[in-house]
Write a structure and sequence with these properties.
Layout lengths: L6 H11 L2 E5 L6 H12 L2 E4 L3 H6 L3 H6 L6 E4 L7 H14 L7 E5 L3 H7 L7 E5 L5 H4 L10 H8 L3 H4 L4 H19 L9 H13 L3 E2 L2 H8 L3 H13 L3 E4 L15 E4 L2 H7 L5 H5 L4 H16 L5 E6 L5 E7 L5 E6 L9 H10 L3 E6 L5 E4 L2 E5 H9 L4
Parallel strand pairs: 1-4, 1-5, 2-3, 3-4, 11-12, 12-14
Antiparallel strand pairs: 6-8, 7-8, 9-10, 10-11, 13-14
Helix pairs in contact: 8-14, 10-11, 10-14, 11-14, 12-13, 16-18
C-alpha cells in the first residue's frame, strides 16, 4: 500500500524556491522513497552516499556534479560526507550566475537540523530545511489497513514508521521495530558521536520510554544508569539530534507564578515506546501503566507534525498545580491550550482551568479517543485527534 505523504507538495514548492533543500528524518522514515518518486517524474539523479559505487562517482565531486547543473541531484545520507558542502556552495553560486536559482540539490539526512547546520554553514542563504516525520494521523486515516482496527489506534500501537505501520500483522511489526532499535544502537548511532556501548544506550532509551512524558531529571537518569550527569545529558542530546526523542520545553513567559523549568521528554514514535517496553499488541498496551503517557506523546507528536510553519509547542505547569499538556504558540502570539485524555468521557481538571486563566488562550481543547466534537463548558471543546489535526493543517503559515 502506498500512503501519500503530506510533505510532498511542500517539498516540491521549496525546490522551486531554493537551490538546495535538506530533508531530515530518522532512518527508515521514508525519505528515500519520497526522493525516488521525484527522480522518476523529474529525471533527477539519485546518489546513495552509503554506496561505494555512488561514492566512486564523487571521487572528483566538482567535476561530476558540474555536468548535472540542469538536473535535480539527490544526495542520500549527506551527513556521511560533510566535505561536499563547500563544493555544493560553489556549484550553486555558479548556477546562480547563469540564472538558475531553483532546485539543484535535494539532500537527505538522518541527523537533526542542529547537526546538519554545523556542517552546512557554508550553504547559508542557499538552503531550506524540512523534516519528514513518521506517518501521521492525517496520512493514515484515509488509508486504513484493517477494517477491524481504527487507523488511529493502529497508528498509536505500531507507530508511524512505514515498515512498522504497513506490516502484515502486529507480530511482524513488532519484530521490525525490535530490529530497527538494534540496528540503530549497533550500527547507526556510533556514526554520530563517541562510541557508546549498545546495551548502555538501550537501557537509557528504555528508561526514557518508561518515563514517557515525564520531566527531564538528568541526575536521576545518570544515577540509574551509573554514569555522570554530563554523560547522561550527552545521551539525551544524541537521541534528540537523531530525531528519536523530543524535549518539549516549558512555557516560561512571566505570568507572575513559579513555573516548572525542566522540559518534558518523549520518545517520539509511539511504536518505538511500545517495543522498548516489550508491548506487542493492543491488549498489552491498554493494560500497561504507560498507556496514558504513550497516548499523550502520540497526540503531541501528531499535532506538532501537522502544525503550520512557525508554530512552537510547549507545556505549561506551575508550582500551584496549573497545567496544560500542550500549548501551541502561533507566530502572531495567539495560543491554543490542549489537554490530552485517554478516556471516552474526559473530565477537565481544575489545573487546566487555572492554567487557562493564566495564559488566556484563544482556543481550548481536550483531545480524547472518541470521534465526536462537543462542548465541555468554559469555551473548551472535546475533540478527536484527527479532527484537531485537520483544523491545524488547514491554517496557512
Amino acid at each position: 500500500m502506498m500512503i501519500k505523504r503530506r510533505i510532498l507538495p511542500i517539498l516540491k514548492q521549496r525546490l522551486r524556491e531554493t537551490p538546495a533543500v535538506v530533508l531530515l528524518g530518522p532512518r527508515q522514515v521514508g525519505k528515500t522513497t519520497l526522493a525516488l518518486s521525484l527522480e522518476k517524474k523529474d529525471r533527477a539523479i539519485y546518489l546513495d552516499l552509503e554506496s561505494e559505487q555512488d561514492l566512486a562517482k564523487l571521487s572528483e565531486p566538482e567535476l561530476y556534479l558540474a555536468g548535472h547543473l540542469e538536473q535535480l541531484v539527490i544526495l542520500d545520507e549527506i551527513h556521511r560526507t560533510p566535505g561536499l558542502f563547500p563544493v555544493l556552495r560553489g556549484l550553486i553560486d555558479r548556477a546562480r550566475r547563469k540564472g538558475k536559482r531553483d532546485g539543484l540539490y535535494l539532500l537527505l539526512g538522518s541527523a537533526s537540523l542542529d547537526l546538519l547546520k554545523q556542517s552546512g554553514e557554508t550553504l547559508a542563504g542557499r538552503v531550506s530545511y524540512l523534516e519528514l516525520s513518521p506517518f501521521d494521523v492525517l496520512e493514515t486515516s484515509t488509508n486504513e489497513k484493517k477494517a477491524s482496527v481504527d487507523s488511529k489506534d493502529r497508528l498509536w500501537l505500531l507507530g508511524g514508521f512505514p515498515e512498522s505501520y504497513l506490516a502484515s500483522d502486529d507480530a511482524v511489526s513488532f519484530r521490525w521495530r525490535q530490529d530497527f532499535i538494534r540496528t540503530y544502537l549497533e550500527r547507526d548511532i556510533p556514526q554520530f558521536g563517541p562510541r557508546i556501548a549498545a546495551e548502555t544506550l538501550r537501557r537509557f532509551w528504555t528508561m526514557l520510554a518508561h518515563g514517557q512524558g515525564g520531566l527531564l531529571n538528568i541526575a536521576q537518569l545518570a544515577r540509574s544508569l551509573g554514569v555522570d550527569a554530563k554523560t547522561a545529558a550527552s545521551y539525551i542530546d544524541l537521541l534528540v539530534d537523531l530525531l528519536l526523542v523530543r524535549r518539549l520545553p516549558p512555557w516560561r513567559t512571566n505570568v507572575g507564578k513559579r513555573l516548572v523549568k525542566s522540559p518534558k521528554v518523549y520518545v517520539r514514535d509511539s511504536g518505538l515506546v511500545h517495543s522498548l517496553l516489550g508491548i506487542s499488541d493492543r491488549e498489552a498496551l491498554l493494560s500497561h501503566p504507560v498507556a496514558g503517557a504513550s497516548w499523550e506523546g502520540f497526540v503531541v507528536e501528531n499535532l506538532l507534525a501537522v502544525s503550520p510553519d512557525g508554530v512552537d509547542g510547549y507545556f505549561y505547569r506551575s508550582s500551584g498545580g496549573a497545567e496544560i499538556d500542550l500549548v501551541l504558540n502561533f507566530p502572531e502570539g495567539r495560543l491554543w491550550a490542549i489537554e490530552i485524555k485517554r478516556s471516552l468521557a474526559p473530565q477537565v481538571e481544575r489545573g487546566f482551568h487555572s492554567a487557562c486563566k493564566d495564559l488566556d488562550p484563544a482556543r481550548r481543547f481536550v483531545v480524547y479517543p472518541g470521534d465526536e466534537t462537543y462542548p465541555l463548558g468554559d469555551d473548551i471543546q472535546a475533540i478527536s485527534l484527527p479532527s484537531l489535526a485537520h483544523q491545524l493543517s488547514k491554517i496557512k503559515s
